[in-house]
Structures
1.
Amino acid sequence: MSNELYPRRRTRPVGPIVTGRVVRLLDGYSRELKVGQPILVAVLTAAGVVRLIGLLVTSVLRAGTGAGSRRKWKDLKKGPEYLVTPLQVRDGDNRICELELHGHLPQSALHPGDHIQLTVRQQKDPDLAPRIERIVNITSGQLLTPRVPTVWSHLGPPLVLQAMLGVLLLGLIGACTVLT
């Protein structure tokens, strides 16, 4: 029986732990992380309060020289992209399992034939292969955790801090109006 005519059937792992050998790492591609519009509106509104106060202060101190570059709504709404690498693993029952590795790993971390133990989680979309959360490379003794960008890392620490300061200022203004 030829493997080309009758290829092995690929399966999805049943449990959260998969132990087996790496068969193949396929070429990676990028996937976009979606940013929820309500989150973006809330963060930008709160950050806008601080930005307005900052613009008022700088316009008084300087002759209105502007406040530097800022990202546009379209850029923030688009969301960050992350690398998705399909991975095939032959488990203990000699089945080939299709999995997805999200994020970057060192190039020397996984090789075909490595004995690995994976912690996987199903994705929201049932058509997608399960996502690898943690890798224990038994062959090399490495513990690997791929990292993907989040909505908060996409927005950036300055914008998130500005939004937190804006919420604090709005709360302070609201408390002052209640007390008077």
2.
Amino acid sequence: MYPRLWRYCLAQTGKRDRADDLAQKTCLRALEKHESYQVGTHLDRWLFRMAHRLWLNEIRATAVRTGGGLVALEETEIPDSSVTAEENIFLSEVFTKIGALPEGQRVVVLLAYVEGFTYQETADTLGIPIGTVMSRLASARKKVAGALSASAVEAGV
């Protein structure tokens, strides 16, 4: 479960060190609040919801203290040795384009497409309406596809 939680935290924060911190804070909070976990419910959703709330609190605190924002995800590389070089380059491009999405879209893409959550599960995890999930996914698909098409045209493909 921890690798999935960390990946979710990386999508939230955009940086490996911040993802490490958020995942650890989430695990600590889960241990502190273990009595609120209901046996038979999905542990991953409970942890993702907790991580999301902790991250929102962190963003609010940072905004109050410094007025800063999110750091770009492009700096993060996660190699996958099971794919060919060409596939890895394409996946890197896709990952970069997804990383450039606004946080709300980036997190919804991770939950729905990477973690395999249904739209309703994604909405419940983030505490947003299902229509917002569908809208963010549609916008994200359009932006990523447009950015990849533009890259292909620039490359002369």
3.
Amino acid sequence: MESTSADDSTRDRGPDEAFCRDCGAVIDARAEICPECGVRQRDPPKSSVDSALDDLFDGGNPFVAAVLSAIFPGLGQLYNRELERGLVFAVGFIIASVSVMVFVGFLLAPAVWLYAVYDAYTRAELRAEELRRKSERDRETDISVSEAADDETADDGAAGGEREE
């Protein structure tokens, strides 16, 4: 009596099916683990806390960037991973603060501070959009690579079946 996995690996896959990465069995395309061999097909899902922390530490959150720059000009730019811009704002704010002694800084220091907050916020929005586009491209690449691997597996299975006959 033949096992079901042998039958599954030789038959064609349907529209909502895929081949297991390890054993080649036909499984549901959404399956995270192959029911035949137990090999994980996808990364485990992330919790909302994990994704929130990743978003927070990856940069690109405009609110966090603005708050950091409000605390001290240049911190928001550092959060956005723009070292040179952050240093320029930090040094500019320090110089403007020192110039308070000659009364020019009363206008200059708040202007540098406000512009640093604005710049951190807008640059974080740009970074967030860039990260979104990159993750979409990576997701599309992963899908096309997995489909190509499935097609190669199907071709190998068909070629192997022809050789045995």
4.
Amino acid sequence: MTLLATACSGGTDSVDQAAGGGFGFVQQASNSDFVPLANRTPAPDLTGPTVAGPDLDLADFRGKILVVNFWASWCAPCRAETPGLVKLAADSPGVAFVGVNEKDNLSAAKAFIQDNNVTYPSIVDRIGTLAARWPVPPGLPSTFVLDSKGRLAARFTGGVLPGDLTPVLTRLRAET
């Protein structure tokens, strides 16, 4: 019997990027990664029209901790996590929240935002080209936390709860 061992590639192709290659993520818990301060890199550019219409650029949030949530109205875990994100956004002064609506019908996205009382803006990524620049694993949702300098500090894959995000926000607040 022959036993073969394989290892993950250290390259920078799209598979490695989806897994966090090159971004310095260190797994903290299942579906949760954090980047130590010394290893953080700038978040990829993210700008575009919002579901409500006007363009938005993440660079406009420099100086604030920023939570970026990739979601879609058709995504069951996205629907489950949204009420908690909305509440956390309301309860977290000084922290900005931005959604990125992925591969969704614009009218469905608007209805989702209205039905869930989402108060923060969501950039439209109709065909996934914006998400392709980020270390977003296949499937939704994915949530990133940027430090006040616009660097990737944490990533959550799958649905995220306020109890998961709160310690990260507290840790980032303590860094400033």
